[in-house]
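Q: Is it fine to ask for two folds in a single conversation?
A: Yes, each is treated on its own. Send the first.
Q: Here.
A: Result:
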Amino acid sequence: MPYLVSFHMGWLIGSVLLGFCMGWISVVQRGNGTSKVTARWLAVLVAALAAASFTHVVPGRFGYWLDLALIMFACYLVGCTIGAWLRDRVVARTAPPAVL
């Protein structure tokens, strides 16, 4: 794992920055999002992939790619969270009070 992080540091920073940008932009869009059933299936899929990564079920090159994809996905989600949180803080401060 430290090898993945040290060797792919540029890509991991890029995924954090991309996540930050998407988190900043996504606060503006107010779509329906995913359904609860789809969200549960996606959560089960991510949990199964993480379990496969931790138990080293997938050997060789594909296991390496799985580990790298999960690390990049985690970095992307951290960037999204930070970007959305900062956007909320900035917009909340600069928004004029509502007039009724």
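Q: Second one now.
A: Result:
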Amino acid sequence: MQISLDNPVSAPQPLSPYYSQVARIEHADGSALLFVSGQIAEGATLTEQTRGVFETLTALLKAHGAGLADVVNIRTYLTDISKLDEYGAVRREFLTGTPPTSMTFEAARLFRPEALVEVEVVAAVPAR
């Protein structure tokens, strides 16, 4: 098993130099688990921010040979849980297959005061 941490240059860069966006745990058979740190995005509305988050997640996964179809777990933090339906509508645009395991929390504040949503995922990448 080999562990690597990185911030792929082909994806939006982290908002702080104090964390890595992706932890890749590579197994001997070439399969891997990807742990993608919580992502936030710019936008005036929850819909805009959610779309930006999923676009960033897509880029981070792609840099490691994966896609949203490989996501096995998703953890979402919303500053207003009453807007879960608004978030869910955008999420369904991006996660179109069998839904992954999921947890959603309401958080009083996120990393940036203007952030309305933060999402982290775990993806399982099959051996090539």
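Q: Anything structural to flag on that second result?
A: Two points. The helical segments are 46-62, 84-94. The chain is about 20% helix and 30% strand.
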